[in-house]
Design a protein that fits this description.
The protein has about 375 residues and is α+β, with helices and mostly antiparallel strands. The termini are far apart.
Length: about 375
């Protein structure tokens, strides 16, 4: 409010001084004076952009310091302190009187010009992109607000899998927070999916949990689709057939062909179930040995128990047996998590040597049932 009042006061005094001109040398000076006077209404409405336009035209026709002074005041009200400072400097060169008049404004603006400019760097829905200013890492990622020195800068925003965004000649100026919208476009390659048997009519294909759209379900080859570069997963499912899984890599502007190989019964390239079977077998052995110790402890031949040495040995068999049974049960439980994950239909499935074991709720009211088939 104080700044606007000061600007308006200076502007009005300038109007009075300029209005004291008794006559015009030509029509250009008259038009310049009319434009100057018209800015009074712009200042009252706080439409400083319109005032700057009128004053710029007036100054070209009638280059007087008072017109430049009023334009400097309009620039300052708009927050364009660099432009305002430049006009005040030109006014100060006109005369000693003008220099004294604009010295407070120059000191005020020089204080503002010494401060950095806040710049907000955004990248839309893509977050975590690295920000590089003038070739140096800014040490922050999007979205972020940077404090930049006044002047021209180059800003580069990069993230793996996306085209880099770069703007050169970005000028940090003014008093408001500037915003840079970095539109990051994904780098893509083309992927074509084929089936080794059957058609897409009875096959469901997914790339990274997203269904693949097929224009001709009766074919065995899908149209190429654009996929962002990087690692992806191909999953193919078909009724009464083990799920097919395969990871693949996509490079920028490259064509990749991947095939759903249902003839490979085991899940291709999935984590091996060997660890699960080793753990399960170890659990069964431990539980079996522990059960043997317990059996031996409770049904041991009474005649052999006459031997004192045997009695000492058999006295701890029930403890060891119980411990081994417990370890065996826990180990068998752990083995459950080491087998490959269940297929997407929701039925637990393990494929080994041509056998498939499914686990699902029983229709007759039981909790779980198991069936094997090959």
């Amino acid at each position: 409010m104080r700044l606007t009042s000061r600007i308006l006061a200076c502007g009005l005094s300038a109007v009075v001084m300029l209005g004291s001109v008794p006559a015009y040398a030509n029509s250009s000076e008259k038009e310049a004076f009319e434009l100057y006077q018209a800015t009074r209404e712009d200042f009252d409405k706080r439409d400083f952009a319109a005032a700057v336009d009128k004053l710029t035209r007036a100054y070209k026709m009638f280059p007087k310091p008072l017109i430049l002074l009023k334009r400097a005041e309009a620039y300052e009200a708009m927050g364009l302190i660099e432009e305002s400072h430049a006009d005040y400097v030109e006014v100060s060169k006109a005369s000693d009187d003008m220099k004294k008049r604009v010295t407070p404004a120059l000191r005020r603006l020089e204080g503002l010009l010494a401060k950095p400019v806040s710049v907000s760097v955004l990248s839309g829905s893509v977050t975590g992109a690295r920000i590089i200013v003038d070739g140096k890492d800014a040490g922050s990622t999007t979205p972020s607000v940077l404090e930049l020195p006044r002047g021209a800068h180059s800003i580069r925003v990069v993230k793996e899998g996306y085209k880099p965004f770069e703007i050169s000649g970005f000028v940090a100026k003014g008093t408001e927070t500037l915003v840079v919208e970095a539109g990051l476009e994904p780098l893509v390659g083309r992927v074509r999916v084929r089936l080794d048997s059957g058609t897409f009519a009875n096959t469901r294909v997914m790339i990274d949990d997203r269904p693949l759209s097929v224009s001709d379900p009766a074919s065995a080859t899908a149209d190429p689709v654009e996929v962002q570069i990087g690692k992806h997963d191909l999953v193919c499912t078909r009724p009464d057939t083990p799920r097919f899984y395969k990871p693949f890599q996509v490079e920028a502007d490259a064509d990749v062909e991947v095939s759903c190989d249902f003839k490979t019964f085991l899940r291709a390239e999935e984590p091996s179930s060997a660890a699960g079977w080793v753990t399960l077998t170890s659990g069964i052995v431990a539980a079996g040995v522990g059960g043997g110790f317990l059996y031996k402890y409770y049904v041991y031949d009474e005649q052999r128990m006459q031997d004192e040495k045997l009695r000492r040995v058999s006295g701890s068999e029930h403890i060891v047996g119980a411990a081994l049974v417990g370890v065996g049960v826990v180990t068998m439980g752990i083995s459950y998590f080491l087998f490959p994950e269940a297929p997407p239909e929701g039925t637990g499935s393990v494929n080994v040597s041509g056998w498939r074991l499914d686990v699902a709720p029983l229709d007759g009211g039981g909790l779980l049932g198991a069936s094997g088939r090959f």
